[in-house]
Amino acid sequence: MQNRKKILLKITGEIFFERTTKKLSASAIKDLANQIKQLESTHQFGIVVGGGNFFRGTQHGVALGMTPSVGHQVGMLATMMNGLILKDLFEQHGLSTSLFCAIPCPEVGSPISQQAIASALQKNNTLIFIGGTGNPFFTTDTNAVLRGLQIEASEIWKGTNVDGIYDTDPRKHENATLIKRVSYTDALTQNLGIMDAPAFALARQHGLSIRVFNIFTPDALITAAHNTDFGSLLEVQSKK
């Protein structure tokens, strides 16, 4: 099992809500756990989860008139709550996990170090990273790329609530066009808004591709593992 493909999965905080009622629900998380278990023989996952279901520093913090850095800190605490929920529900469904926290809080998660990450990977655990990078002004997207590099991921999977990368927001524009493959340079030039610029820069520098897909698609992880055309691919040099 040591030759499994490593994937850093970035998931939206919306995973904690039922899609139609918008009420708290564990169904999507349980489904995610079952898919990870099905892929255990071929894939190993590190997970970064957003905190927007609780608090967004750039949205809620601004609305409250908070100091920007403090708003970001509250957002990082939101990811810690999500990570605890994720770990508990995963382990209830038979997944062994290691929870790593970028903000010193030993009662919640272990400090992040390369040695601790390597040990968790050797134990075949699913790794969950919370607390962002530990610093304000960096998004969970940037954190996902950082942790992807630390686990030596072959690819980043960004599970969102849309089917991939579009030329404009498909939730606002019904004529939005899905883009299957795009380079980091073109994504920045076209201001596609898939991830923030620091995440782009870090992934591009290290040649790390990012697959974007709808995490709420039935068996999304299974499909992503076996179908390279699923969703959209953000890469160093787009192959058209």
Taken in chain order, the helices and strands follow as EHEHHEEHEHEEEEHHEHE
Average of per-residue pLDDT values: 93
Largest sheet: 9 strands, mixed
- Spatial sequence of strands, sheet with the most strands: 4-3-5-2-1-6-10-11-9
Q: Classify the beta-strand content into a percent band.
A: 15-25%
Shape: globular
| Secondary-structure content class | alpha/beta
Number of helices: 8
Helix share, percent: 25-40%
Written description of the protein model:
40% of the residues are buried. The longest helix has 25 residues, at 68-92. Helix content is 36%, strand content 20%. It has eight helices and eleven strands. The mean pLDDT is 93. It has helices at residues 27-38, 57-63, 68-92, 114-122, 140-150, 184-189, 197-205, 220-226; strands at residues 5-11, 43-49, 97-101, 110-111, 126-130, 155-160, 165-166, 178-179, 181-183, 210-214, 232-235. With 240 residues, the chain is an alpha/beta fold. The strands form two sheets. Strands 4-3-5-2-1-6-10-11-9 form a nine-stranded mixed beta sheet, sandwiched between helices. The protein starts with a strand and ends in a 5-residue tail after the last strand.
Present the secondary structure layout:
Elements: E1 5-11, H1 27-38, E2 43-49, H2 57-63, H3 68-92, E3 97-101, E4 110-111, H4 114-122, E5 126-130, H5 140-150, E6 155-160, E7 165-166, E8 178-179, E9 181-183, H6 184-189, H7 197-205, E10 210-214, H8 220-226, E11 232-235
Parallel strand pairs: 1-2, 1-6, 2-5, 3-4, 3-5, 6-10, 9-11
Antiparallel strand pairs: 7-8, 10-11
